[in-house]
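User: Reviewer 2 asked us to show a designed sequence for the structure in our supplementary figure. I'm pasting the structure tokens here. Could you produce the per-position amino acids so we can include them in the response letter?
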């Protein structure tokens, strides 16, 4: 993902939540090994990994209000409404607009503080937050469509103007009413 891009440095940031921070540390370690070392010891033509993992609360998972801690299928009450309004706060969830505001402003700050044309900033975070950030950075027509650009677990993407094809976001059969999960 970093070869042939003309990069000088790779830096890592993550959510403060444990699994994201551990993922960032693991990815950083693998990349250090692949690139041949840290801080000024790169293989010819490859960037160096600089610094440790910077943890940022702004990249934490979206707060799902009264649904927090409940089984994943209950989140299906939120995402369809997000597609209608990015200010959805039903069940006391954090709205798409709020997630975009906190994450994008922090990413802009980090770009200025740590970035540059020849620096790759790797962000380890959580599904909704990363999808909202990527959709916003890509300039999607309507930010409420963020959930149509799902990340797979452990997937890496470049956050530029390109997005993967939209996915059908209808609920899986096992989540539908009558299957014992969503009543």
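Assistant: Here is a per-position design you can include in the supplement:
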């Amino acid at each position: 993902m970093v070869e042939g891009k003309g990069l000088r440095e790779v830096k890592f940031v993550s959510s403060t939540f444990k699994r994201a921070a551990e993922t960032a540390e693991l990815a950083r370690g693998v990349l250090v090994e692949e690139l041949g070392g840290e801080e000024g010891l790169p293989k010819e033509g490859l960037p160096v990994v600089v610094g440790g993992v910077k943890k940022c609360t702004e990249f934490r998972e979206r707060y799902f209000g009264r649904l927090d801690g409940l089984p994943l299928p209950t989140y299906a009450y939120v995402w369809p409404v997000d597609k209608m309004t990015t200010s959805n706060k039903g069940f006391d969830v954090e709205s798409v607009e709020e997630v975009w505001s906190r994450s994008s402003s922090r990413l802009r700050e980090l770009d200025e503080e740590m970035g540059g044309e020849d620096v790759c900033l790797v962000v380890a975070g959580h599904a909704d937050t990363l999808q909202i950030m990527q959709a916003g950075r890509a300039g999607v027509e309507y930010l409420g469509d963020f959930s149509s650009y799902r990340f797979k677990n452990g997937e890496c993407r470049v956050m530029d103007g390109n997005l993967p094809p939209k996915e059908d976001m209808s609920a899986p059969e096992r989540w539908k009413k009558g299957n014992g999960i969503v009543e």
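For the response letter, you might also mention the following. The helical segments are 18-35, 79-82, 96-114, 127-138. The two ends are 43 Å apart (CA to CA).
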